[in-house]
Amino acid sequence: MDIKKNLEEVLNNIELAEKRSVTGEKVKLIAVTKTHGIDIIEKAIELGVKDIGENKVQELTKKIEVLKDKVNYHMIGNLQSNKVKFIYNKVKLIHSLDRLSLAKEIEKRASQDDIKVNCLIQINIGDESTKGGIELRDTEKFVESLLEFNHIKIMGLMAIAPDTDDEKLLRTCFKNMFNIKEKIKSKGYEGLEMKYLSMGMSNDYEIAIEEGANMVRVGSKIFGARNYNI
Ligand SMILES: *Cc1c(COP(=O)(O)O)cnc(C)c1O
Predict the structure, then answer these.
(1) How many beta carbons lie within 10 A of that of residue 57, not counting itself?
(2) Which residues are paired to 32 by β-bridges?
(3) Domain Alanine racemase N-terminal, which positions (predicted)?
(4) 220 CA closest ligand 1 atom index
(5) Which end of the chain is more exposed for a tag (fewer CB within 10 A), N or C?
């Protein structure tokens, strides 16, 4: 696996897609390293990767223990409330805030330390029962319900698009995300940033960027296929 070549290609594609995007904004790459070992991640860091994404708390904490502050950590997977304590003060961003009970736990932990935890709200954009996230139509209500949590900083929205080659459907999903983000941003809630739109993975990141994503989470296009048995 030629990570260097893959990474260059992804970064190049991101740059080209930025030029076609509705916003023209710079896009941040989160290299998704789940299932991959420390040596591979260290190589990616050497090649300039600054942010990595992991979807399991146990795997993430193991990697943090070894890599320490060499890289920024993003929690991108479903997060159980009883595992918040292991990561809330170690990650740069939690992408998967999707329920009030989870927000309460993050708020509780963060307030004890008097820190703010950066979070994105995960939207179930394809209305898929197998995926986490709140329903699109509940987004504003959910955001408003989080405003009282002083130790949670809402930085934007995240979505995992349906696993499909239907480009039209993907674009509709991404557009809906962009529109709701802009709508909430325009309300100008105090303490709410609505800066990031985290969407787009290996198969759809260029489309996502064109439709307004400014954070993409790319794994297999950089590191190759995952082996879940390790
Ligand atoms: C695994 C994963 C990704 C990356 O998937 P690829 O298709 O390998 O790019 C992105 N986001 C989330 C939430 C993931 O779990």
Answers:
(1) 19
(2) 53
(3) 6-226
(4) 8
(5) C
